[in-house]
Amino acid sequence: MSFFGNLSTLFGTQEPSKKQPTAKKKSKLKTITPTPLQSKGTKSKPTIAKKVAKATPTPAPTQVKKRVNTAEDNQVLGDARAQAREIIVEARDEALTIRLKADNRSREANREIQQQQQSLDSKLSKIEDRLSSIDTKEERIGKQRQEVEKLKEKTVQKEEQVLEKLEKASGLTTEEAKQQLFADLEKKLGTEMSKLIRQKEEEAKNEADDKAKEILVDAMKHGATDYVAEYTISTVQLPSEEVKGKIIGKSGRNIHAFERITGVDVDLDAEPTSVKVSCFDPIRREIARVALERLIKDGRIQPARIEEVVAKVRKEIDKITFEAGKKLCQEVGAYNLPNELMGILGRFKYRFSYGQNLIAHVLEETKIGIKLAHEMKVDVNTVRLGCLLHDVGKVVYDVEGSHVELGVKVAKRFGLPKAVVDCIAQHHEDEPFSGPEQMIVYIADAISGARPGARYENHEGYVERLEQLESIANSYEEVAESYAIQAGREVRVLLKPDKSKDDDVTVLAAKIRDEIKDNVTYPGTVTVTVIRETRFHEVAK
Questions:
Q1: Which residues pair with 356 in a beta bridge?
Q2: Rounded CA gap, 448 and 350, in Å?
Q3: What is the 3-state secondary structure (H, E, C) of 442-483?
Q4: Phi-psi region of 483 (alpha: psi -120 to 50; beta: other; left: phi over 0)
Q5: How far apart are CA 334 and CA 349, in angstroms?
Q6: Pair (427, 498) in one structural domain
Q7: pLDDT tens, position by position, for the chain (541 residues)?
Q8: How many domains in the chain?
Q9: CB neighbours (10 Å) of residue 88?
Q10: What is the distance between the alpha carbons of residues 509 and 465, in angstroms, rounded to a whole number?
C-alpha cells in the first residue's frame, strides 16, 4: 500500500505544475517578438539585414512552445522515475523484512509444536505404563481374593465340623451352651455380689449414728444443676401495628429518647403486634416495660411525656421493690435489717437466676437451711442471714465483679458478722468451708436449684434424658417394665418374677446405677428402685 500511495502522491502533485511553465513561456515569447524600428511616416529602402531576415525564415511561436514543453516533461518524467525506483527499492526491503519475520514466527511455532508433541508423547507413554501396572495389580489382587475366599470357605467348613463334634460330645446346641454358661456365671456372681452389697449396707447402718452428719452433707453436695437459662427480654403487646409509628416518632426521636432515658434496647421487628424490651438489668427492663405500656395506653408518645412517665414509674418500682424486700425478710424471720438492704433484696422480685425467680429461690432456700440448721444444731441466725443474702450480689449493677464478690462487699458495707460474710463467699465453693453453717448454706442453695421444675430446662433434652433412662433399664432381659418418674430423678424398674431371683434385685439396681452414671448427664441425683413381686391368685368355687 505504501508503494502505490507514493506513486499516486507523486503523479498527482506534478500535473498542475505542467500548466504553469506554459504561461511563462508565452510571456517570454511575447517579449522576443521583434518590433519595427521605423516609424509609420518614414519610408526607407530595404537593407541587407532585412533581406537576410527575409531570407531566413523565423520560427513560429507554437513550435517554440512545443520545444519548451517537451524538455520540461522529460525532466519531470526523469524525476518521477527516480522516485519510483526509490519506492520500489523501499517496498522490496519492506517485503523482505516482513518475509523474514514471518519465517521466524513459523520456525518458532514449529519448534513449540514439536516440544508440545514431545511432552504429550512422554505423558502418553507414562500413562500407558501406569495403566499396564494397574492391570497387573488388579490381576494380582483378583488372584489373592480368590485365594482368600477359598481359605474362608475352608475355615467355615472346619468351624462347622468342630461345632458339630462339640455339640455331639456335649449334647447341647451353641445357643443352649451360651445360655447355660451365662446362667451359671450369673448365679455364682449374683449370689456373691448380693452378699457383698448387703454386708456393706449393714456396716453402713451400724456406723450411721456416728457419721450421720457427714453422710448428709456429702449426699446433698450433689444437688447442683447443670442447666442454666437467663431471662433478659420483656414483651409488650400492641393493640395494632400502627402504634409502632408513634413509638418511633418523627425521624426516630421518640424511640431514641425512650432508649436513652430507660437504658434499654427496643426491638420493633420481632413481631407485627409486639415490642421486645431487652436489658441485663431487670429493674431497668421492668421500668421500661411498664412505662411503654402506659405510654401506649395514653397515646401521647413524645420525648417530654416519655421522661415524665419513666420518672413516675421509677419511683413506683422503687416502692414495690422495698415492699417486696421487707416482706421477704419478714417471711424468713430476719428483722432489724437496714431499709437500704431490704430495698436491695426487693430487687429479687424482677431477677431470675438460671430461669428461677430469686424471691422464690431465696425463700425456699432459707427455709431449707433453717430446717437443716435445727437438725444439725448449729447457729440458726447465721444460716438464716447467709441463705437470705447469698445471692445479693446478683442485683448489684453499678460495680463490676462476680455476684460472690459483690455480695461480700454489700455484707461488709452494712457491717454484717464475719460468719455471714463467709456464707456468702463460700456458697459456690470459691473458698474452703470455714464451718458447718457455710456448708449448710451451700447445700440449701444446691437443693433449691436442683429441685425438679425449679429451673428452666430444654424440653427436648428433658424428654431425651427420660427415654435414655428407661432404655438403659429395659436393656436387661429380666426387666418387665421401667418408668422414669419425678422429672427423671427416679427410675422404677419392675422385674419378671419367673426370670429373676431375689438376689437379682440388688445386683440389677447396682448395674443400672453404674450405667446411668457412665452414660447419662443429669442434674442432681437419680434413684434406681428395682421391684420384684410374685403374686398368686386362687378362686374358691
A1: 353
A2: 18
A3: HHHHHHHHHCCCCCCCCHHHHHHHHHHHHHHHHCCCCEEEEE
A4: beta
A5: 18
A6: no
A7: 444 454 445 444 444 444 444 334 333 333 334 444 343 343 444 444 444 444 445 455 555 555 557 888 888 888 898 999 999 999 999 999 999 999 999 999 999 999 999 999 999 999 999 899 899 999 999 999 999 999 999 898 888 888 888 877 877 777 777 777 777 776 666 667 777 777 777 777 777 656 665 545 554 443 333 333 345 577 888 888 788 888 888 888 888 888 888 888 888 877 778 888 888 778 888 888 888 888 888 888 888 899 999 999 989 988 888 898 898 888 888 888 888 989 888 888 888 765 677 888 888 889 888 988 888 888 999 999 999 998 888 888 777 777 888 889 999 999 999 999 999 988 887 788 888 999 999 888 888 776 555 554 455 666 788 888 999 999 998 898 898 887 677 899 988 888 888 878 888 888 999 999 888 877 657 889 999 887 766 778 6
A8: 4
A9: 13
A10: 18
Say if residue 308 is in the same domain as residue 365.
no
DSSP label of 265: E
329 exposure class (CB count in 10 Å sphere: 0-12, 13-18, 19+): buried
CA distance 142 to 139: 5
Residue 86 near residue 12 (C-beta atoms within 8 A) = no
Sign of CA dihedral 362, 366, 367, 368: positive
Residue 250 forms part of a structural domain: yes
Kindly report the backbone phi and psi dihedral angles of residue 66, in degrees, each rounded to the nearest multiple of 5, phi listed first. Answer: -60, -40
Q: Which residue's entry shows cell 457383698?
A: 196
Last residue of a domain, one of 144, 163, 189: 144
Please tell me the distance from the alpha carbon of residue 47 to that of residue 491, in angstroms, as a whole number: 172
Burial per residue of 490-520, b for 16 or more beta-carbon CB atoms within 10 angstroms, e otherwise: bbbbbbeeeebbebbbbbbbbbbbebbeeee
Instruction: Name the 3-class secondary structure at 350.
Output: helix
Show the cell assigned to 39: 516609424
The CATH number of the domain holding residue 482 is 3.30.300.30
Q: Specify whether the CB–CB gap between 267 and 244 falls below 8 A.
A: no
